Automatic annotation (TrEMBL):
Lineage per the UniProt record: Bacteria, Pseudomonadati, Pseudomonadota, Alphaproteobacteria, Rhodobacterales
UniProt key word Transmembrane: yes
Other comments on record: Carbon 2 of the heme B porphyrin ring is defined according to the Fischer nomenclature.
Principal EC category: transferase
Localization in the cell: Cell membrane
Protein name in the entry: Protoheme IX farnesyltransferase
Catalytic reaction(s) noted: heme b + (2E,6E)-farnesyl diphosphate + H2O = Fe(II)-heme o + diphosphate
Keywords per UniProt: Cell membrane, Heme biosynthesis, Membrane, Transferase, Transmembrane, Transmembrane helix
PANTHER family hit by this protein: 4-HYDROXYBENZOATE SOLANESYLTRANSFERASE, PROTOHEME IX FARNESYLTRANSFERASE, MITOCHONDRIAL
Gene from which the chain derives: ctaB
Family indicated by similarity: Belongs to the UbiA prenyltransferase family. Protoheme IX farnesyltransferase subfamily.
């Protein structure tokens, strides 16, 4: 476990270790959804301004990741999924992670304000604070609703992208936020079903630990139903259209089918086949979000040619 004594250790980090602190896989999702939010907006930015806006939103997401790894270094050292991260593996110090997170937080907010507008910068600042303080420091180790609350932080990028272009929040921006917000809990609860021992060992009150697997399965189904309703409903807004509706219908039929399968399974069956259905649900959920936002992007790119939307 990482302790204060680790501050006295010798570190020899390389550039890749600092990149790993920024959670590049999570950052890629931040970049893509923020880009879609910006492109779907009814106001266009100059390409240079748009590039800078997405860059600084990405840096803000990376800053959140660094602050998360700084605070969670002790439990990261316990969990199999996270013990190879830069801090628990001894490649980067706690002070370095904290310093990088704070510096990039300030830089990203300031530069987004200058590159786009201060409304977007305020949303980015709130997102970093929400993820690092409200979720990571305060609630992650306190409530089984941690992933529901934490999901809000990951849902802000498309809204920030939209606000970067328009300077204001709209129904469409809120719906893109809501889609990611509803997607996050079942995505991570499916992971928790076949990684439960990690959360037990680290004493993190994930729903599988506090309420058990049957309750988690019921929650996954409930959120999948709400997620499907929201995703399909988004098709009938100004950022939706025929392409998006077809994608949403296909993806959500698959998700609901798998969610029902997960809900109906008993624990003996789950152990017998090593949670194959849960793993499949988790993997498809990664594709689910990407395909939905790709469809929104397609609608936005085709709209000028009269091919997107419902026109």
């Amino acid at each position: 476990m990482v302790t204060v004594a680790d501050h006295n250790a010798e570190y020899d980090p390389v550039f890749g270790d600092y990149v790993a602190l920024l959670k590049p896989r999570v950052m890629s999702l931040v970049v893509f959804t923020a880009f879609v939010g910006l492109m779907a907006a009814p106001v266009s930015l100059h390409p240079v301004e748009a590039f800078c806006a997405i860059l600084f939103i990405a840096i803000g997401g990376g800053a959140s990741g660094s602050l998360n790894m700084w605070w969670d270094a002790d439990i990261d050292a316990i969990m199999r999924r996270t013990k190879s991260r830069p801090i628990p593996s001894g490649r980067i110090s706690l002070d370095a992670a904290l310093g990088l997170g704070v510096a990039l937080s300030g830089l990203s907010v300031l530069m987004l304000g200058l590159a786009a507008n201060w409304h977007a910068a305020a949303w980015l600042a709130f997102t970093i604070f929400f993820y690092a303080v409200i979720y990571t420091i305060w609630l992650k180790r306190v409530t089984p609703q941690n992933i529901v609350i934490g999901g809000a932080a990951g849902a802000f990028p498309p809204l920030i992208g939209w606000v970067s272009a328009t300077g204001s929040v709209s129904v469409e921006a809120v719906l893109m936020f809501a889609l990611i917000f509803m997607w996050t809990p079942p995505h991570f609860w499916a992971l928790a079903l076949f990684m439960r021992s990690d959360y037990d060992d680290a004493d993190v009150p994930m729903l599988t630990v506090t309420h058990g697997r049957p309750a988690t399965r019921r929650h996954i189904l409930a959120y999948a139903v709400l997620q499907a309703a929201l995703a399909i409903g988004l098709a009938f807004t100004s950022i939706g259209g025929v392409i998006y509706l077809i994608v949403a219908l296909i993806c959500n039929v698959i998700v609901l089918k798998d969610a029902v399968h997960i809900w109906r399974r008993d624990e003996l069956a789950s152990e017998a086949d090593n949670f194959k259905v849960e793993r499949a649900f988790f993997k498809f959920s990664l594709l689910y979000l990407f395909v939905h936002f790709l469809a929104i992007l397609a609608e936005a790119l085709l709209a000028p040619y009269g091919l997107g939307g419902w026109s």
